[in-house]
Design brief:
Helices cover about 65% and strands about 5% of the residues. By secondary structure, it is mostly helical. It has a two-stranded antiparallel ribbon. The chain is globular and about 45 Å long.
């Protein structure tokens, strides 16, 4: 069970680019989840509340910390196979953002830049033990991406 969760339903077994594929898959699921009941101008359901995306992101984070800690014993520290951290980080990137194709692409780009480059204290979080280090660096990357996305939305850039 932990392997399935940690690998994002098997995406993590992609040797090169698994984190990017997991992030793209997350964007696709986020988009399709919101697609059916869109309001004009954005893919945002009527009656959409912040509660559901926050709960999903929180649940992915908690389960991700647990599963990453368990699989670390088998696969070693922060194995390439573990992509639940990218999924949770991508979810955090998109929280409270009006979902459009532009915002999803911008969020994906920003999240991957922060996740791969690891600036502004992100790299330090990797050193935390177990699943905490695996998950928290990606969550901080997602937070940075979210802040920049909010600015872009406020300035009507996206």
């Amino acid at each position: 069970m932990h392997e399935l969760i940690a690998t994002g339903l098997g995406i993590g077994y992609i040797r090169k680019g698994g984190g990017t594929v997991a992030s793209i898959a997350c964007c696709g699921v986020w988009y399709l989840t919101l697609l059916g009941t869109a309001q004009p101008g954005a893919v945002q359901p009527a009656g959409y509340t912040v509660l559901i995306p926050v709960l999903i992101t929180s649940l992915l984070t908690a389960v991700g910390i647990w599963s990453a800690t368990v699989v670390e014993q088998q696969w070693g520290k922060d194995s390439y196979r573990v992509v639940i951290d990218e999924i949770a980080g991508m979810c955090l990137s998109l929280l409270f953002i009006p979902i459009t194709v532009k915002s999803l692409l911008a969020g994906l780009l920003l999240f991957r830049l922060f996740d791969i480059g690891k600036p502004l204290g992100i790299r330090k979080l990797e050193k935390l033990p177990g699943g905490w280090g695996v998950m928290l660096d990606d969550l901080l990357a997602g937070l940075y991406a979210n802040v920049l996305l909010r600015v872009a939305v406020a300035l009507s850039i996206i």
